[in-house]
Amino acid sequence: MSNEFSVFSPQPSASLVLCAFFLDLLLGDPRWFPHPVVLIGRGISLGEGTLRRLAKFKTAELLAGAMLAVVIPVSAFVAVDFIIKLTSHLHQWTGWFAAVFFGYTTIAAKSLYQEPLKVAAMLDAKNLDGARNELSCLVGRDTSSLDEKGITRALLETVAENTSDGVIAPLFYLAIGGPPLAMAYKAINTLDSMVGYKNEKYLYFGRASARLDDIANYIPARITAILLAVAAFILRKDWRRAWRITLRDSGNHPSPNSGYPEAAVAGALGRRLGGLSYYGGMPSNKPFIGDDAGEFQVRDVREAGRLMLMTSALMVLISIVVLSIWGQRCV
């Protein structure tokens, strides 16, 4: 294979990661767009309905849920890999564009920056009901009774957590396994968001999906925390406290992974996350993350978004360097 063709190969490459990331910054996630994750979600719903009819007791629910947790990510991987290979047979450029397209659809940096700012703008305009309604599209907690402080805290927590889940993890898997692996990760993440709950309905059926998501996010969450501290240094935030709070409070979360990015953001901005929230009317009192160094401000949302973008840029830069060096060694 020539060097020229390898540059435009749909396999992991520096140019693929860079183009996918910039395409996300350019286009974001238009609501009219037929997103692959929507198809994944429909597949999960269809699979759940089919498998639940066969699962009549707890052990059967565990097995059925485990089957769904395997079939959906494998199907996503195979489908994307097949499409890229098929288009590559037509021409190397069509394969390249297909790879960039699928890579782009796994990244959510632009929407993660813009959507919280819409809520923040409503808070600035003193439109509390509008902010609560818009926030309900972004988080799983109950929002109808949240005040400005509660809304801001929810936004900071979702930006922090999704910096890992929505940006760094997809970039990580895009860099090591190309678009098929990145899409398989998105399938795992979507499974967790749809069935990975610890309630009566999903306690057994969703257990495998939740555990698989924990495994898939283990490394990316820790990379995210490190890069957030570096981003805090670049943006002249409190990077020392970001690092200290990460080391101290990253375990103060029900998730084995979400505490890492939340602790880094809490430290960098000098805010205390966690505490009481309600989900479906049921209270959830999470341990605190961070020091109570100041009152929540609406501008914190923009600062969290800037941290997310800088962290994303750092991850892209690292991916480009590593993949460029790796590509030179393989030539």
Short description:
This protein is mainly alpha-helical and 331 residues long. The chain has helices at 3-7, 14-27, 36-54, 58-90, 92-105, 109-124, 128-135, 148-195, 207-234, 239-249, 259-269, 299-330, and strands at residues 273-279, 282-289.
Describe this structure in words.
It is a single chain. The protein has helices at 3-7, 14-27, 36-54, 58-90, 92-105, 109-124, 128-135, 148-195, 207-234, 239-249, 259-269, 299-330; strands spanning 273-279, 282-289. A two-stranded antiparallel ribbon has the order 1-2. With 331 residues, it is mostly helical. A hairpin with a 2-residue loop joins β1 (273-279) and β2 (282-289). Mean pLDDT is 92; it is low at 1-9.
Low-confidence stretches: 1-9
Q: Percent of residues in helical segments?
A: over 70%
Main sheet: strands, sense, barrel: 2 strands, antiparallel
Shape descriptor reads globular
Q: Mean pLDDT, rounded to whole units? A: 92
Give me the secondary-structure category: mainly alpha
Query: Helical segment tally?
Result: 12
Assembly status: single chain
Helix and strand element order: HHHHHHHHHHHEEH
Distance between the termini: 9 Å
In percent, how much strand structure appears in the residues?
under 5%
Strand order of the largest sheet: 1-2
Tally the beta strands: 2
What does the radius of gyration come to? Answer: 20 Å
